[in-house]
Amino acid sequence: MPFVVxxxxxxxxxxxxxxxxxxxGGSNMKMSIDQMDTICAKYGSTRPGELRLVMGEFxxxxxxxxxxxxxxxxxxxxFAPKLKLKRAITNPDEVTDNDVELDGIDFNPGxxxxxxxxxxxxxxxxxxxxxxxxEVLDDKExxxxxxxELLKKHGYVTVEMFRIRAFITxxxxxxxxxxxxxxxxxKLLKTRQGQTFIYTET
Length: 202
Hints:
Blueprint: E1 2-11, E2 17-23, H1 33-43, H2 50-67, E3 72-73, E4 77-85, E5 100-109, H3 111-120, E6 126-127, H4 133-138, H5 140-154, H6 159-166, H7 170-179, E7 188-193, E8 196-201
Parallel strand pairs: 1-6
Antiparallel strand pairs: 1-2, 3-4, 4-5, 7-8
Helix pairs in contact: 5-6, 6-7
């Protein structure tokens, strides 16, 4: 996981600002439900549109039972209501229905989620100095490592697969993959498969 180091307002013992870390983020580090639906359909066992449909149904019906006070357990994790009082009260007998409000929904990742997440975190963390894809693109060794891992796991790679795994734009992913198909000793062979181009080792 790429991360950045940022200064915090708090001062350390040496008088300098303490630092904290967070995921790299940026406009290219967001996945929509439509993108996840496409990925699951391409590389998983769902049909196009199925994930979006299932998620819509789940949200509609699970929210009903959470609103009734239930905890809903799923392979992703559990969802449960969290309540709070609107005002400070010391006597339990004084609490009325109007004194209570929703304080959000507690989400606790499930065992299946933890196992899958640990698998995808096997490469650990990677420090990125700034919020720029230029930094990532300059790291040729890491890009070739990402390519090798995808080829090893799937036997092929697509622009979308490489874009997601390398944390770069679609344009950059396509350009890099195409560059690797050129020259006297190309690394990759580009082949059309339906409406998608796949890249395999030469």
